[in-house]
Design a protein that fits this description.
The chain is an alpha/beta fold. The chain contains 9 helices and 11 strands. About 2% of the residues have low confidence.
């Protein structure tokens, strides 16, 4: 069996039962380093998953009432931290004329609303019907459509964002290729995904993001660089976050101190649970 993304040789790593009671094998590519599951779920199976309770039940697999104001505030808080670390605000000031943003995998459009409030001509696209309807009811410019099939009528985007979504996509390479083609001159792609850093390897099948069959790929810095090259892109900035210390309400000072130190180390050494990257056209 060979790697779906690069054709490299795979070596078995883990095996885990999914929420569908099927057993999934996770293998690591010896060439690019990506982890991938087998059997790979069909597009119909994945589409059905995101029309169910995925966005309503909080667990390591999904979100509690994703369309709520509480989740909106949480999403925006994380978004602003990522944008600051990506040097977005300085770059934003350098842009002239209309600023066009596309969010691929927008769910209820929380990030779309954030950018629209900053003066961007923002648009979100997703296949999750309930989330799109919830976002539209809040006045957000969202499309319920297949990103790979939708006709954007020649529109180009200054910024394309893809937050915590790539790991869900069997067609990850096709998605990134299409994003590259939709970029305006000088445009950027911001992407976050699960990171097979220290915590993934330490905790194995207990790792909080090893969710099968929802997550079909697990990337790291090296595998994202390999994928970018295949799509005519390059990684110009990368950092990680998530140290295994979750945010707790009313946590004691010593817990917050330990979390602060662990978070800083995870970011510096790219060992955190999540990785954020900036792509530009090569």
């Amino acid at each position: 069996m060979s790697c779906i993304l690069c054709g490299g040789r795979l070596t078995p790593r883990l095996s885990k039962a999914g929420r569908d009671a099927k057993n999934y094998n996770i293998a690591e590519c010896l060439n690019c380093g990506v982890w991938q599951i087998a059997p790979m779920p069909s597009e119909a199976e994945l589409n059905a998953l995101y029309q169910s309770d995925y966005f309503k039940v909080r667990s390591d697999r999904g979100y509690a009432d994703y369309a709520s104001d509480k989740i909106y505030r949480s999403v925006v808080s994380t978004l602003e931290k990522n944008l600051r670390d990506l040097n977005f605000f300085s770059w934003e000031k350098s842009l002239n004329g209309p600023k066009h943003l596309l969010e691929v995998g927008c769910a209820a459009g929380h990030a779309v609303a954030y950018f629209a409030a900053r003066g961007w001509q923002a648009l979100g696209i997703d296949i999750a019907h309930e989330m799109i309807e919830a976002g539209k009811s809040a006045g957000r410019p969202l499309l319920e459509a297949d990103f790979l099939q939708h006709d954007f009528a020649g529109q180009k985007f200054s910024l394309i964002t893809h937050w915590a979504t790539l790991e869900h996509l069997p067609q990850a390479e096709m998605f990134l290729q299409r994003m590259a083609k939709l970029l305006a001159d000088g445009g950027r792609i911001y992407l976050s995904t699960c990171n097979t850093g220290y915590f993934a390897r330490r905790y194995g099948i207990s790792w909080r993001y090893l969710n099968v069959p929802e997550h079909v790929f697990y990337f790291n810095h090296r595998s994202l660089q390999c994928l970018a090259k295949k799509c005519g892109l390059k990684v110009v900035r990368a950092f990680s976050y998530g140290s295994g210390f979750t945010t707790r309400e009313n946590a004691p000072w010593w817990y917050n101190f330990k979390k602060h130190i662990a978070d800083r180390l995870a970011r510096y050494f790219l060992t955190g649970d999540m990785i954020v990257v900036e792509f530009v056209v090569e």
